[in-house]
# Entry
Amino acid sequence: MLTIQTPEAIMFWFLAPLAVIAALGMLLVKKAVHSALLLAWVMITLAIFYIAEDALFLGIVQIVVYTGAVMMLFLFILMLVGVDASDSLTETIPGLRPIAITAALGFGGLLVSLIGRATLGHGAFGLTQANSAGNVQELAKLLFSTYVWPFEVVSALLITAALGAMVLAHHQRTIARPTQREQAIARFRGVSLGSAAGLPNPGVYARHNAVDVPALLPDGSAAPNSISATLKARGDMLDSAQFELGEVDNTVTEEK
Amino acid sequence: MNPYNYLYVAGLLFTIGAVGVVVRRNAIVVFMCVELMLNAANLTLVTFARINGTLDGQVVAFFTMVVAACEVVVGLAIIVTIYRTRRSASIDDASLLKR
# Structure
């Protein structure tokens, strides 16, 4: 029969409320990145729970696969889509939110009260006997005997998913990529020879050397073609006039 | 404390995830809420494995993790494809079939 030791109880009562609060926070925060971080915290908490529940292998896999791979993928896609794109929390379907919250309260209450009333007809056994040869060894024994068929089906699923992602991410060019020769010809036979030697680098040296500031040409005018077209389209371009040196300041102040 | 307490936590997390799927509009956040629901189900499986004294629940939880990984890969690829064509990751914008 399973008796839960005090350290596990303390761990549970400490981490479980934090996990629930973090999950609630996931719903309430505006930015998707914050949601992702809170979800990572919930997942780490669950990994600790697994380890406490004699599921050592699953605990480690949870950290490696979920907080490692899956959350990294999420953050990667967030970066791709745009971190600043915060979700507007106004509801588009009128009355959706109250209905959702009422339904959730009902569903959650039902779950909790059902768990509270249900009995299995026996107490908790604990995994000391099932884990007698070690958790990983016993899991491997099950996985490669009883569950060997699902295991192989799951491998097929993984390959299918990888192929599907490749097919979805692949995008075909509608026009042929211009060759280096064609690009060189276009540079010299274009409207002006100004870009024949390559475009100027962005940034105003010494004052603001970032890629979002157009370079200043020798005559003091800004060179907008030194900025990446993506930044220009996004409107992430600063005015380089504010970084212009009007007068060189020669005074030296000593810092303490 | 008895091990059923883990089930309560799993139930709460599952409910919160379900609300998130309904309420939030950013497709990626909706996806993360689905992950939360899957995780809650995993916690239930692990807890029942412990209560019943067999490891079958843990094996099934392991399979769930693999399926969740597949789901994330394909789902995020779909989100990126939609974003590429529509420049938006909001699930309300993808309503072309309605009009």
User: Anything to note?
Assistant: The two ends of chain A are 68 Å apart (CA to CA). Strands of chain A lie at 215-216, 222-223. Chain A touches chain B through 82 residues (CB under 8 Å). Chain A is about 55% helix and 0% strand.
